[in-house]
Design a protein that fits this description.
single chain; 38% helix; alpha/beta
């Protein structure tokens, strides 16, 4: 089993990290400082396979890195993680460039001709960035059946081997329908989908759903 670094101590990072530990991976949760209160609590709750440290500690530790911070903090977290520490590693970007400054519904502070996924790849030119899991709630991310059916997970990225590596983990999360939409520019449409997700969630009054690509 590969070692995995998770950047971010919020619900997404904690949920993904917990599932990975349950699957037998060693996982280090990274935050701005050693001994982060949420990270320490997460380690205590998840036992032997769990550890915590700084963003740089998690980046050095992980053979695969999950970026689970809020979108506006993602690039800063990568900078604090040390760009060289991500070199030749698969980086799974789960973050979204959501802007809640004007309330609900949110907008995107990057869109149309660029994406946060592309900005992550630009910041980490030596890494293999894959955009995935950003279009569903964190509980659905790690347990696809909670989406209510055989829903579709979109992924994109520039490196075929990295995408194959991510697909293996997604399969362990219960994803059967995984659709590769091409290079990292696909992150533009994946991130735009999140605005629709927020509207649907507000209507359904539940985050437990997903989208399905229906093919003839």
């Amino acid at each position: 089993m590969k070692k995995i670094g998770v950047l971010g101590t919020g619900a997404v990072g904690a949920t993904i990290g917990k599932k990975l530990v349950e699957l037998g991976y060693e996982v280090k949760m990274g935050s701005r400082t050693n001994g982060n209160e949420k990270a320490v609590a997460w380690v205590k709750a998840n036992g032997k396979g769990a550890s915590e440290g700084t963003f740089a500690d998690a980046a050095v530790f992980g053979e695969i890195i999950f970026v689970c911070t809020r979108g506006e903090f993602a690039l800063k977290a990568l900078e604090q993680g040390g760009v060289e520490n991500f070199k030749n590693k698969t980086v799974v970007d789960v973050s979204n460039p959501l802007d809640f400054s004007k309330g609900m519904p949110p907008s995107l502070y990057i869109s149309n001709t660029n994406s946060l996924g592309e900005e992550v790849q630009k910041m980490l030119p030596g890494a293999y960035v894959v955009k995935a899991l950003n279009t569903v709630n964190c509980e659905v991310m790690v347990d696809a059946k909670k989406g209510g059916g055989d829903i579709t997970m979109l992924i994109c990225g520039n490196d075929a081997n990295a995408k194959a590596e991510v697909k293996e983990i997604l399969a362990q999360f219960g994803w059967n329908d995984i659709l590769d939409i091409g290079d990292i520019k696909g992150a533009r449409s994946q991130e735009m989908m999140v605005i629709t997700w927020v509207s649907v969630m507000s209507t359904l009054k539940t985050p437990h759903f997903g989208f399905k690509v229906v093919k003839p």
